[in-house]
Amino acid sequence: MIEEIRPGLKRWAVPHPEFDPLEGGLDESYGDVASVLYSGEEALVLVDPLVPDELWSTLDAEVKQSGKPVVVLTTIFFHERSRESVARRYGARVGGHVAGVSAFSAERGDEVAFWLEGPHALVFGDAILGDQAGGLRLTPWARDAAGLERTRRALEKLLDLPAEIALPSHGDPVLANAREALARALCA
């Protein structure tokens, strides 16, 4: 169930009990939401973890094998998912600075995108989605055109990064040429 993207970088996607993609203006292919596991230099980082019962034993093994402290990061405040359960189970720190991980504001409330330096990966909450055709798309969930433009401009700074991988919370990941996929999404 947990897919290795690169050594030290894993992702899994499962149905969210409270998310209906049709209500969000998406199609059924967006039914699953993704979580990321990154084995950084100093910590095992979980981004927006949603852990169904059947995945706990696999995650337990990942944590034990890493031997590193666990840190839980959240792209958006309401992506709580299993954050508190993970924190309790592994004595994890929630939030804060992690070596090799940088947060970039998406200019959507407190939403951030994370840059994982080692694997050259971007992790997105709701600002960027997979387009289900091998690329990325800008969020369909903007309050107004001005807010969408603020998000677009804020995310343009990510084009300065050598992103190879993009791991959106909603939609399929981009596993090669992520910088180019992001550039296309921001120009659309």
Polypeptide structure, described:
The structure is a single chain. The longest helix has 12 residues, at 145-156. The chain has 188 residues and is of the alpha/beta class. Strands 1-2-3-4-5-6 form a 6-stranded mixed β-sheet, with helices on one face. It has a 4-stranded mixed β-sheet with strand order 7-8-9-12, with helices on one face. A two-stranded antiparallel ribbon has the order 10-11. It has helices at 56-66, 83-90, 145-156, 178-187; strands at residues 3-6, 9-15, 32-39, 44-47, 70-73, 93-94, 101-105, 112-116, 121-124, 128-130, 136-138, 165-168. It is globular and about 45 Å long. β5 (70-73), α2 (83-90) and β6 (93-94) form a beta-alpha-beta unit.
Write a brief caption for the model:
This protein is α/β, with parallel strands linked by helices and 188 residues long.
How are the strands of the biggest sheet laid out side by side?
1-2-3-4-5-6
Question: Which structural class do you get from the secondary structure elements?
Answer: alpha/beta
What best-fitting shape do the alpha-carbon axes yield?
Answer: globular
Total beta strand runs: 12
Oligomer: single chain
Beta content comes to: 25-35%
Q: Element order, helices and strands?
A: EEEEHEHEEEEEEHEH
- Mean pLDDT, all residues: 95
Radius of gyration: 15 Å
